[in-house]
Amino acid sequence: MLNALPQREFIAKLGGVFEHSPWVARRIVASRPFSSRLQLLQAMRAAVAEAAPEAQLALVRAHPELGGRGQSRLIAASAREQRGAGLSGCTAQENTRLEELNAAYLNRFGFPFVLAVRGHTPASILAAIEGRLANEPTLERHTALCEIGSIAAHRLAGLIVSSPGTEIVAMLEALSLASGRFAGKNALAVRQSGTAATTMVCEWLLTAGFCVKNDARGQIVGRSRVARPVAATLVAGLHYDAAADVLRYGGRMEFAVATAVALQLEQRGLSLPLDLAIVARPDDMRVGDSSSLVDGESLRGCVALRAIEGVDTVGNDARDALAALRATGVDGGSLLVVRQGRAGMSHAPDAGPDAQAAERAAGVWMDFLLRLDPRISGAERMATDD
């Protein structure tokens, strides 16, 4: 257990989470125990935010340039991240442009360009540098530190495997805090709350190994990166409520459970026989009906989207989510979880589960996923309890 490690071992294990900066781990070692990976991450980010400007600048400067020069300074995590973004396979033209932009950026700001490259491609990285070159220095320094925080999130997930229950509770608490911080304030504050929640959800999905897209209506869709042909896509976050005969958005609880389980699969190197799409709406404050997720009998199987999608069976809260799914290539053959819990209770505004209840919900969802039959692309319905 990380909390029980001697101080020196704790610092050594976490020393590479922030590039060449073990001082971040050293500053939070006395704050143990941490209840979850997300709480640990927040403590490390707070240590950076509270550090002197000179220490923050040194942290930014500890990062090597992306691609090209500086590769000899890469720690193993940086090398993996850059390979994952395709930087090791850049064309000669892309390498030349990257070197030009890196030099222009360093000349303007006095520190290297830093980007959390997970989910990026060489083209999007080049576009990001070009866009950020126009920033004011103060803003760009803040942006670089935010990107470093995101890099730390991905690295920490590779080191620490928290139980799904603690991850789910931590996600729900973080979203509740983001919403409550701006409650009752002006329209600008509401937008700030939505931006903070959106940033968190996108980061969680990226950490779990998803490609992420968000639209102007506040919908976020994460799609698993499957490098082989798959029979179908399973959608989480939306479900077919068989008791009420309606398609619903499941609230924060539903996408938090699916995301925590997806992270467990990523950390364990397990793969599903089908693609997975997770739908989230961060500005929707409803937690959802956690009891029906904990109840394994409520998950009856899957139904193809085309079998139930219609004007009379799509709830208003699911329409925008369907549009966002369509934009990512999800079609009518995609599968929705069938839930047969209490009719109309999908949005019960409960306070969310405790860690034990969340752990049970994650266990039910994990078991459901691992029992799916890969030969379901043409099926209108698929039962899992035969």
Structure description:
It is a single chain. With 386 residues, this protein is of the alpha+beta class. The protein folds into 2 domains: 2-157, Oxo-4-hydroxy-4-carboxy-5-ureidoimidazoline decarboxylase (UraD-like); 165-383, 3-Layer(aba) Sandwich (Aminopeptidase), CATH 3.40.630. It is 49% helix and 11% strand. It is built from 15 helices and 8 strands. Strands 1, 2, 3, 4, 5, 6, 7 and 8 form an 8-stranded mixed sheet that branches. Helix 4 (53-61) packs across helix 8 (137-159).
Concise account of the structure shown:
This protein has helices at 7-14, 23-28, 37-49, 53-61, 76-84, 92-109, 122-132, 137-159, 164-181, 187-207, 251-268, 290-294, 305-308, 316-327, 355-370, and strands spanning 210-214, 220-224, 233-241, 246-249, 275-280, 299-304, 335-339, 381-383. The protein is α+β, with helices and mostly antiparallel strands and 386 residues long. It folds into two domains: 2-157, Orthogonal Bundle (UraD-like), CATH 1.10.3330; 165-383, Aminopeptidase.
